[in-house]
Amino acid sequence: MKNLFLLLFLPIISLSQNFKPVKDTAVLKQKIENMSKTTVSIESDFVQEKNLSMLSEKIISKGHFVFKKENLLRWEYTTPSKYLIIINKEKVMIKDEKKTNKYDMNSNKVFKEINDIMLSCVQGTIFKSNKFKTSYFENEKGYKLELIPQVKNMKETFKKINLYFDKNVTSVSKMEMIENNDDLTSLDFTNKKLNAPIAETIFIVK
Amino acid sequence: MHQLPKLYLLLSSLICLLFSSCAISKYKHSSSSKQVVISENEISPVISKEKATKYKGTIDVLKNHLSGIVIIKQTDSVTTHIIFVTEIGMKMFDFEWKNNVMNPIYVFEPINKKSLIAALSENFKQMLLLDVFGKHSNLLSNQKVKSFYSLTDAKHRFLITDSSKTLILQKVFHRNKRDRFINYTFDAQTKSYTQIKSTQFGWVKINIELNIINE
């Protein structure tokens, strides 16, 4: 019965997500560029869902993030456990329930890579990176950018990164990271506040 | 004066030897002994056959600290997966225990070091009792430890249980020296191990702590 229900309604669900290639990509690129230029801060809740394809298991985490130009990011998980990442220009602090570690971005290649992806994704500017080949899609609700890794270390981990924008291109509404084994990590952003004043003290690495 | 460091070294070695010998001696003598094949009736298993178990996990190797979520799932009668995913969703490793052999299916490149993978595999194998059920063992008892199972292959391994047959401690010795101690906390209501803490001694110290995530 459940399968029959899925068979009947799956085409409708797929249709509502039906993305078509964007005809005028220059206009969309300009919109994203403008969004990035006019956004000085973002504050948002997020729900992260990690789907482990082989095990058919999900890990759902929730949290809050704050971004402030230039290069200030506070990424905080509240459930299922407390975990905090602060990026303050070249410094990174990671605090879990047991330990706090500080790193210099320049001394750690992996952190530099993760930092670049996180910051450029929340700002939507990742499409400008030469590390990805970008394709542009749209439907009646918004836009989707499909980013295919072009460099070796990225290719080893990710098959594809998808970024979703609403129709007005005000901010990234969703992000998906698909790994080579088809594991999927999605991030849904809700309760967004754009360009609200944010104290820099919340980004202090101490 | 210059003899002092040598004296300290000698004394500390003697103390270490005394402690390690004492520790294993606690399990070397028994007042009662019974041969058993370890089954789930003897020791409550860590891994559920019905569903995946999720733990908040931390791994400390030398000065490196890793934290994330560990998912343990038995996918069929002979296969179990142990997957470690960081909070940001990056998979660090996927170990597959199949037909009594642990295989790394995926390891995140920066941590893909042969010795580290071997050490982690061994730790998780013992922590999760993957190689315990179906094995012949002696169920022993003495004045100091009321109930413990002895498994002896390359190492001396003792599984200490309480009166309700739940595991409370696992001690592994190599050539009479302590090799790994694993502490278990069991919740009788949920019938699950809520905390598992493993400490590997020796030159490369590894600490692994798992705390159950209740969904």
Report what the structure shows.
The complex is a heterodimer of chains A (206) and B (215). Chain A is globular, with a radius of gyration of 18 Å. Chain A has four helices and twelve strands, in the order H-E-H-E-E-E-E-E-E-H-E-E-H-E-E-E. The longest helix of chain A has 15 residues. The N terminus of chain A is likely disordered. By secondary structure, chain B is of the alpha+beta class. A 13-stranded antiparallel sheet of chain B has the order 1-7-8-9-10-11-12-13-2-3-4-5-6. The longest helix of chain B is centred in the first third of the chain and has 25 residues. Chain B is globular and about 50 Å long.
Number of DSSP-assigned strands of chain B = 13
Q: Please mark out the parts of chain B with pLDDT under 50 across 5 or more consecutive residues, or reply none.
A: 13-22
- Strand residues, percent of chain A: over 45%
Can you count the beta strands of chain A?
12
Query: Could you state the oligomeric state of the chains shown?
Result: heterodimer
Principal-axis shape of chain B: globular
Most extensive interface between two protein chains, with residue counts: A-B, 29 and 26 residues
List the helices and strands and how they pair.
The complex is a heterodimer of chains A (206) and B (215).
Chain A: H1 2-16, E1 20-21, H2 25-38, E2 41-52, E3 57-68, E4 72-79, E5 83-88, E6 91-95, E7 100-104, H3 109-123, E8 132-138, E9 142-149, H4 152-157, E10 158-166, E11 172-179, E12 184-194
Antiparallel strand pairs in A: 1-8, 2-3, 2-12, 3-4, 4-5, 5-6, 6-7, 8-9, 9-10, 10-11, 11-12
Chain B: H1 4-28, E1 32-37, E2 53-61, E3 64-76, E4 79-86, E5 91-98, E6 101-107, H2 114-127, E7 136-141, E8 148-152, E9 156-161, E10 167-174, E11 177-187, E12 192-200, E13 206-212
Antiparallel strand pairs in B: 1-7, 2-3, 2-13, 3-4, 4-5, 5-6, 7-8, 8-9, 9-10, 10-11, 11-12, 12-13
